[in-house]
Structures are given as C-alpha cells and as structure tokens.
Amino acid sequence: MAEGTIEPTTVIELVLGLLVLVTLAVTAARRLGIPYPIMLVVGGLLLGFVPGLPQPQLAPELAFLIFLPPLLFAAGYFTSLRDFRADLRAISLLAVGLVLVTIVAVAVVLHLLLPDLPLAAAFVMGAIVAPPDAVAATAIAQRIGLPRRIVTILEGESLINDATALVAYRVAVAAVLSGSFSLVDAGLSFVGVAAGGVVAGLVVGYATVLLLRHLTDPPVEVTITLLAPFAAYISADSLAVSGVLATVTAGILVGHRAPRVMSSETRLIGSGAWQMLLFVLNGLVFILIGLQLPSILAELDRSPVEPLGLALAVSLTVIVVRLVWVFPGAYLPRLLSRSLRERDPNPPWQRVFVLGWAGMRGIVSLAAALALPLDFPERGLFLFVTLSVIVATLVGQGLTLPLVMRALGVTGDTYHEEEEVHARTMASQAASARIGRLYGEWPAHRELIEHLQAQYAHRDRHLAENQGDGMSVEAETELIEHGRIRRAVIDAERDAIIGLRDRGAISAEALRRVERDLDLEELRLEA
C-alpha cells in the first residue's frame, strides 16, 4: 500500500495513523450529518497535500485481493433473495444494460475529444468508470434513508455490475495491447467468465456451509466466514473467471443458510467481528481514494487544464446517461407488458430520478485504473479522469442526494418494520403453540410453562398493539430441564421466522432482526 521500498515499521505506523484518521473522520461525519464516505474522500484529498506526510499508493492487487472480497461477500450475505428476485429485471437492466451503454457513451465522447486516442483505449476508460460502487451506494443510501426498494436495486446492481465492467475492461485492455478486437469473442468471454464465477461461488459457498454445519466452535466458524470471500475470489481468479461474481454468489448462499447452520453464539460473535472488519476496510478504502491525488497528478504529462475539461465531460456523460437510462428502464417494460403493469404498477417519476441520481463510483473504478499497464496509452490521464469521476459522483451527487430527495418529496418507507412486526407476531404464535404441547411433555414443570405462557401472551398483546453458586443435583437437573423447555420454545420461534423467509413472506433483514433477539435469549440460557 505504501510507495516505493517503504520500511515495514513505517507501513504499520501509516496504517495505524490512517485508522486514527478514519475514526476521527467518521465521528465528525456523523456529528455533521454527512455520509462518512464523502468525509473520508474529502479528508484524503486534503491530507494528500500536507507537506511531510507519507504518500501511500493504493496498489490494484491490494484493492482486488484484500479490500474487494470481504466487502462484496458481506454485501451478498446481507442481500435478501426475495427482494433481489423481485427486482431482478430492474437490477439486470442497470447492472448489464446500463454498464454497456455507459461504456460506449464514454468511449464515443472521449474519442471525439481526443481523436488521436485509440478507440479501444477509449472503451477501457468507459469500462473503468461505468460501474457504480457497492460500498458507496450502501453506505450513503442507508445513511440518508432512501426508500427500501431503491436501496435493494442499488445494492443488487452494485453486486453484478462490477463483473460486467471488469470483463469489458479485460477485453478492451487486451484489444489495446494486441491491436485486435472481436465482438463475438468478447461476448463469449463475458458469458463464460460470468457463468464460471457463479459456479465457483456456489462451490465455495456450499463448502463453507458444509463446514459450518459440522463445527461447534464459534471462533473457528467465524474464522471460516472471514476466509470464505478470499477462497471464492482467489479460486475464481485462478480459473480466469469472475472473482466478483464468485464472491457475491458465495456470500448470498452463506447468508441464506446461516440461520440453519450457525449457532446463536457464532452469529453474534461473527456479527461483531464482521462489523469491525467492514468498518476498518470501508474507512481505509475511502480515505485511500482521496490520498491518491498527489501521485496521480505526478503521472500527468500535461497541464491539468485539459484533463479537467476531459474529466468534466466524462463525469457529465456517466451522470446524464444514467438519468436518461433509468426512465425507459422503469416504464418501457410495463408499457409492453400488461401483466407486469398490473403486478407492479409504474413507480413515481420522483423515485426513478432519485435512483438515477444515486450512481456513485468508488474503489473498483480506481483499482481498475491503477491496474492499467505502465505502458498503456495516456495512463496518467486515465488515472486523473477516474479519480475526478469518483469525486464528482461520490462527493457531488452524494452530498446533493438528500437535497434532491427533499425537493422531490421522496421519503423512506417503513414496510420492512411492518415485516419485522409480522415476523415477531408469527414467532410468538409459534412459541405459544409449542408451549401448549409442553404441558404433556414436562408435567413436573407446570409453573415454568405457565410463566412462559403468560410472558408470550403479554408479548402477543404488545405486538398486536404495534400492528394495530453451589447447586444440588436436583436443582441443577431442574435448571437443565427449564433450559430445554425454553430452548424448545425458541427453536419454534426460529423455525417460524425462517419459514416466513423461505416462503418470501418477510425479507432477510426482518429475519435477522428477530433472529438476533432469539440468539441473545438463547445465550442467556447458557450464562
């Protein structure tokens, strides 16, 4: 990550210093009500010009191998399959259709402004800046309270579009270096790389689930979940298929199976471990983006005036193309299909505009630009334009997105909260039914069962309102039996909410919220 032959102790000091800066910047962002990725990028841009400070460079292999796999795996883990399938049409139009159209549009604009630039090289620039960033979209969308469906589409788009753009990037770079290009070969390469990535992800995902199912040591299980994204990415990359899709696929699969194969303790420990890891990685990613400006300027072999004009043109292109694309993408399929129109009516144009305005670029674009060969035509210019597009979309659109939402009257929704209440209600009803059968199974513990029955009756009423040191052998045996009784009730609740998730009645997010309470309750039995 550091420049040149920097000493290991200096690298450690640099990383620790960056973590301190990340902590301070995130704290300041939350106090000011600004999404923290914006604060970190701006802070990195300013720090880059402080005299005497080290100038760390973000190595592309570091971004692709260290940062990207866990971030993508976590995004896939927390993806709701129900919501993803429901919006697959919109997600596909953005993740594949819009990315390819953006690549072409940027290539045409850049070729018109720089006629001497090979067209294939212009396509490389398009592939670099075409995909919005999963990390930026999720962090900013959750912070400003976007409607849940827009968040789902943004997250789903960001999980797939990296694969589309990186395959196009690989083909275009090869065309520049070899001097030849075949559309048929490019299409076949895209299909093969994408399909291979999904297969690799399924293999790693099922292997992870199998290991988790047969292990009973929470620290080991959490370690496996931390290693799984790297296993998926590295295995796919070694097979020359999409590491992005492999990692995302493994994350989705493990996340879907986690309620059945992980213990309560593993889920709770894993949640804390992953929250810390994601916080550190996200923070370092965004502050490193800003810190790249001095080294990128050093690679420019011309006055910054012309590159600024090109950067502005490319930034406007990616923003305008997205805004133009989202409206026919939202309304044309409904216009052509009556059944779709009846099943899923036209969304308000204000929400469609907000979806179009939320296309922020990030770490994948910068890593792709940094990965360009040193002898690539106009490499320094490409780096500058890429960073400019990231700043323009992440800072410019990210800061104005709340203003756009307020101006258009777009507010967040609460249907996921209603689903959570529904999940809790069904879990409580399942617990009540299980308690009724426990009288016959544990006749000597009627007092405890009656206590549980009263407890769940009270919970039912509350949920309805929301919708509308030494111990004897005998005492120890009794405590164990009490634990079994209560655990049987908790198991019934957990089976109920997993069933709701599997039938598509609730989202994965609603399941996780209720599941966390059940996990905590189960762990209290063991305290």
Task: Give the structure's gist in a few sentences.
82% of the residues lie in helices and 0% in strands. By secondary structure, it is mostly helical.
Can you describe what's shown?
- The protein has 527 residues and is mainly α.
- The protein has 2 domains: 8-408, Na+/H+ antiporter like fold (Up-down Bundle); 415-526, no CATH class.
- 82% of the residues lie in helices and 0% in strands.
- It contains 22 helices and no strands.
- The protein has helices at 8-32, 36-47, 60-77, 81-86, 88-113, 119-129, 134-144, 148-178, 183-214, 218-238, 243-261, 264-291, 293-299, 305-336, 338-343, 349-357, 363-370, 379-408, 415-441, 446-467, 473-502, 508-526.
- Helix 14 (305-336) crosses helix 18 (379-408) and helix 19 crosses helix 22 (508-526).
- The longest helix is centred in the middle third of the chain and has 32 residues, at 183-214.
- It is globular, with a radius of gyration of 26 Å.
- Residues 1-5 and 468-472 have low confidence and may be disordered.
Helix content: over 70%
Major sheet details: none
Rg, nearest Å: 26 Å
- What is the tally of beta strands? 0
Order of helices and strands: HHHHHHHHHHHHHHHHHHHHHH
What is the CATH architecture term of the largest domain?
Answer: Up-down Bundle
Give the count of helical stretches.
22
* CATH class placement of the largest domain: Mainly Alpha
Q: How many domains, as an integer?
A: 2
The coarse silhouette is globular
What share of the residues does DSSP label as strand, in percent? under 5%
Quickly give the structural class: mainly alpha
Low-confidence stretches: 1-5, 468-472
From the 3D structure, determine the CATH topology of the largest domain.
Answer: Na+/H+ antiporter like fold
Mean pLDDT: 81
Q: How far apart are the termini?
A: 44 Å
